[in-house]
Amino acid sequence: MSRSIFSMIQKLTSNVKSCHMAQIAFLQKVALEERCILVDEFDRPIGNASKRDCHRINNNGTIPLHRAFSVFLFNQDNDLLLQKRSPWKVTFPGCYTNSCCSHPLAEIPGETLEDDAIGIRRAAQRRLNYELGIPLSEIQLSDFFYLSRIHYFSSGDGIWGEHEIDYILFLQKDHITIDPNPDEVSEVQWVSKSMINDLTRTIKAPLTPWFQLILQYKLQLWWDNLKTLDKVQDYSVIQKYL
After folding, report:
1. Are 69 and 17 within one domain?
2. Is 117 found in the same domain as 18?
3. What CATH number is associated with residue 229?
4. What Rg do the C-alpha atoms of the chain give, in angstroms?
5. Chain-wide mean pLDDT for the chain?
6. Dist. CA 242–CA 226, nearest whole Å
């Protein structure tokens, strides 16, 4: 191959990569305009605001409190699926976290419904499809076990942070299709209960703040009771880590 042809291929490859990165940046920017559900400290809805406004730290150091959810997906061997967030994510890029984390949206019909956390379940089903490529037909709303709620705050990188009431959903399925969206997720891996602490100590990337809190205070108890989650279900009281 001549040097001129090789140079041309390199240039074309670079242009394709630049276009893809620009597309990702555009998608992430669009996502910042989604409308999160604002709540008070008792998880009562009080309005909505853009995802941008719900994650950018105000001049006084505050962030509007809003609803979120965290899904913990287990297979039939009781292994937990972890993901590493895409480096293009606005908040906590390149961090390891639980299987799927996002928000119910005010503009999507059905995601504001509260009975039995049905709106949260619908949002979780939608995001598992978008982030991990799991077909909607493979996960039913009844498959989610609504376990708990946590209220936490993180100042993140000093520009973007989190202040959420996070609904914890457990899900145990086998033979599901996983095809991660590279715009959202850079890698996934199944981790056993016996290996989770060693893994999180040795990985060369930080953990998201909500996953770090859950790992430190609750995950072991919940994982130990994976087959009898009703024994540790405690969503009636919002656990505060502030």
Report:
1. no
2. no
3. 3.90.79.10
4. 19
5. 90
6. 27
Q: What is the pLDDT of residues 139-193, one digit of tens each?
A: 999 999 999 999 999 999 999 999 999 999 999 998 899 999 999 999 999 999 9
Q: Which domain holds residue 129?
A: 35-240
Residue type, 86: S
Q: Quick one: 22 and 99 in the same domain?
A: no
Number of domains in the chain: 2
Across 97-123, average pLDDT: 97
* Active site residues per annotation: 101, 164
Question: Does residue 113 sit in the same domain as residue 14?
Answer: no
